[in-house]
Every structure is written in structure tokens, then in C-alpha cells.
């Protein structure tokens, strides 16, 4: 007997969409790789055309589509590609996001709106079109799992990251509302959020630079040491977060909905 057949963490035969997966060293690419390793076929989306290279690196079970996650028309088109090319849609990972730092008194309202559009409106659209596609009578119609990437910044505040924290806090509670709604309406769709701590992706490095620019820390070297010292287990990797996403997307997480899975090396504790 194939031991994989008894592994509840496998996602064999599933079709997944991962947004914001266009950077080879980014969190989205790691999530896509973890799902492919688990047996899924994965549609990678990003506004960054570099997603073509990420998809190519994952082999024939992955393909890329360019998507602006703030556009409803792009969501409709992207979901249709998943259904047409792979025959369904079982997993949607709303990973795309940005982090714009700035003190409340100094932040331009247009930057605040951009933060909300990319981090919050995009997740609303992802939830909406995942439900329409996965629920009974939808184009896929076999239920599924939605995993939304929030942050520890969606649980507690941080100086200089007010807009970011607000956007990720909204993702946290939208997740819970969608989870209850899908369960009550018996759609067979689970909705959960993942809350990573600082990971040294390009976004994480930009956050450290922003701390220095705002005068919160004197230089990048001290900033990294200061931040790392707050994590009891040290800083994590993209794989730590990707594995958490795969768990929530798999049958191993079949009784998980509306949950917030914190992956932060203990910093929130």
C-alpha cells in the first residue's frame, strides 16, 4: 500500500490557487511548492510576471496567470483559468499583500487606501469568488478550503505599522465571518487564517529598513538583531509558514474553521 494514501496532510488531486506567488524567494512561492509537494496542481497568480519562472520551477503541475488581486474582473478570469485548465478549484490561498510603513500623523491617506485595497479588498474578493466556485452548484462545486494570510500584526499593534495592522486585523475577522457563514450554509468550505511573524523575505527586509528610516532603530544590523531577540525560537523561514498553510488546506485540518494559526516562534506568547 502506498503510505501516501494514509497521509492526511496530502492534497492529492486538489486544485489550488495561490495569489502573490511571483517571487522565487517569497512566501507565496513556498506555499505553492508545499502544495505541489503534497500532490496538488497549483495555479500561481501575481501582478509580477516573475511568476512564470516560479511556475516553471514547479513542473507541469503548476501554471501562472497574471492577476491584479484588487480587480474583480481579474478574480473572475483567474478562477475560470483554474477550473478550465485543471478541472476545478479546491484550495484558495489569499497570500498577496504589501506592507506600507508610516506613523499615523505622517501617512498619506492614499497610501492607507492602497494598503487596504491590496491587503483587505483583495481577500474579500478572494473569499467571494472562492465561495461562488466551490459551493454546491458552483463551477467546481465540491467544497474546499480557503486560507487567508494575515499576520501577527493582525492580532496586536506595532508602531509605524498602523495601516498594515488595520488591514491584517480586517483579514482576521473576515476569515471568521466567512467561516461561520460557510458552515451555517453547509457549503463544505472551511476558512482559516495564518498569522506569521517576521520572515526574512523581501517584505520582511523592507520592514526592517522602514524601522530604521522612521528612526525607531539606528541601523539595519541592529534592527535585525533587535527584532530577532524578541522571538523565543528565533526567526522562522518561509517553509514554516507554507507547511502551516498546507495543514489547513489538507484533510488533517478538516475540523479547523475560523481558526487563527499563529506561526511566529513564540513572539506573540
Automatic annotation (TrEMBL):
Protein keywords: Lipid metabolism, NAD, Oxidoreductase, Steroid metabolism
Superkingdom of the organism of origin: Bacteria
Gene3D superfamilies attached to this UniProt entry: NAD(P)-binding Rossmann-like Domain
Molecular function terms from GO: oxidoreductase activity
Keyword Lipid metabolism: yes
Occurrences of domain Ketoreductase (ranges): 14-202
Lipid metabolism found in the keyword field: yes
UniProt feature coiled coil, ranges: none
Gene Ontology biological process terms, A to Z: steroid metabolic process
Pfam families: adh_short_C2
Classification via PANTHER family: 3-OXOACYL-(ACYL-CARRIER-PROTEIN) REDUCTASE (AFU_ORTHOLOGUE AFUA_6G11210) (PTHR43180), NAD(P)-BINDING ROSSMANN-FOLD SUPERFAMILY PROTEIN (PTHR43180:SF28)
Family from the record: Belongs to the short-chain dehydrogenases/reductases (SDR) family.
Protein name: NAD(P)-dependent dehydrogenase (Short-subunit alcohol dehydrogenase family)
